[in-house]
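Q: Here's a chain of 282 amino acids. Please give me its 3D structure as tokens.
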Amino acid sequence: MTTTLPPAAPMDPRHPQPFSGAHVLGEPGQIDAEGVCAWFGGRLVLETVNLTMEKSKVTALIGPSGCGKSTFLRILNRMHEVVPGAQLAGSVKLDGVDIYGPGQRAMETRRHIGMVFQKPNPFPAMTIAENVLAGLKFSRISPANKDDLIEESLTKGGLWNEVKDRLGELGGALSGGQQQRLCIARSLAVKPRVLLMDEPCSALDPTSTLRIEQTIKDIADEVTVVIVTHNMQQAQRVSNYCAFFLAEENQPGRVIEAGRTEMIFGEPTDQRTFDYVNGQFG
């Protein structure tokens, strides 16, 4: 059975606030995808994905183009539902709370599950400092100390030392690698519990890529990270776990194999996984 995703509904007072109680912003969370299937325009593109992304760990989603990795990533924070005609089955739970359940609001979900896109997207008319605080402004949240939060977020994003003396300059004036780290800092400022990253280094030079990878390693203890990457060396360098997605001829994408990174790259159980990570296709 499939369900056309509805627009975000107003909060029903009969239901608890989403992620309330123990579900505190700033504490890493675990995501469990159970039986996730996705359609675009009636075409099944992702089939029966069951995957756990452990808290305070980095999970890399790998596989050839067109196998559903980015679609799955967008499902994890309800970006899938903004596409006209998109449909979804299954559930996605953040520490046991179904993010698509009754009373759960998309905007609130995205505060807990942030996202950094493939192309850096700072707000060009905002200063570096304003960019960092943008997510809080849109959520109508006033931090206790803006200056401290800006420094903390930029430090976690690996950018503070490079921009601390020019916070009033426009974010769009930074280099591509710096803009991407600014976007990471902006995402971290709202204290998400999970950070999704869709090929965050694909358009960057090797030096910027290494800085982003170091940032991922530095923040992994504080936020669960799920990253889509086509770079096998990167997946090995930054992730604790890997999930290999594949869409075989005329078939939807699915997870072929998932496990600890060293197992996926060293002793995979499926020949298709072995062939992919060793560069024999894709």
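Q: Can you summarize the key feature?
A: The two ends are 32 Å apart (CA to CA).
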